[in-house]
Amino acid sequence: MSRRMLAILALLLVSAGCAGRDFTRPPLESIAVGQATESEIRQRFGTPFREGTVLKNNETMKVLSYAYATSASSAPGDVVPARAQEFYFWRDVLIGHHFTSSFPNDRTDFDGTKAPEIRKGETTESGVVSLLGPPHGVYRYPLIADKDARASVYLFEQVKGSALNPKFYRQILVVQYDGAGVVKDVEYSAAGER
Fold first, then answer.
1. CA 22 to chain CA mean position, Å
2. Predicted confidence (pLDDT) per residue in 15-68, tens digit
3. If we measure between CA atoms, which residue out of 43, 100, 109, 30 comes closest to residue 68?
4. pTM over 0.85
5. ∠179-53-7 over CA atoms, to 5°?
6. What's the rounded Cα separation, in Å, for the pair 135 and 147?
7. How far is it, in rounded angstroms, from Cα 119 to Cα 32?
8. How does DSSP classify residue 4?
9. How far apart (Å, rounded) are the C-alpha atoms in residues 36 and 70?
């Protein structure tokens, strides 16, 4: 979920008390990356909150974004409870998706300080899961540059404060694996105010 979408959700909360349509996080293994089509995702999840495109590795992909936020104070620390699921399509085939939530029951926060413990050429996929838990999404080319790799995604985003003074935080970890399930690349970034 981008800062723009978070801002839109925050502004809608001021006027309506909630934004988007609530949904349940789908099990990671129930989403067939490399097989599912846009129409299958639309049939399963309904009309998206937002649609758009993204350019990565010189390829344009379609994005369907499903999002929900509420002004109910069910999250501690002035956090606006929100969740989002984004699906990426290239040539009408699903090539990636990720989920993020600041709701207490399905919160996707993770310990980004552990990212340096993931070593290229050494750490296995099961080692990453042992370190951080199950991933929040999956990416394939062209969301990642390597055509032969696949990646696990860990993502957490939150908004704190009021609609007039929102404070955004985002951290994302993308771990790429080779065919044997050994780490090929690790990208971590964090921005904003926790």
1. 16
2. 345 567 788 888 888 999 999 999 999 999 999 999 999 999 999 999 999 999
3. 100
4. yes
5. 110
6. 20
7. 28
8. H
9. 30
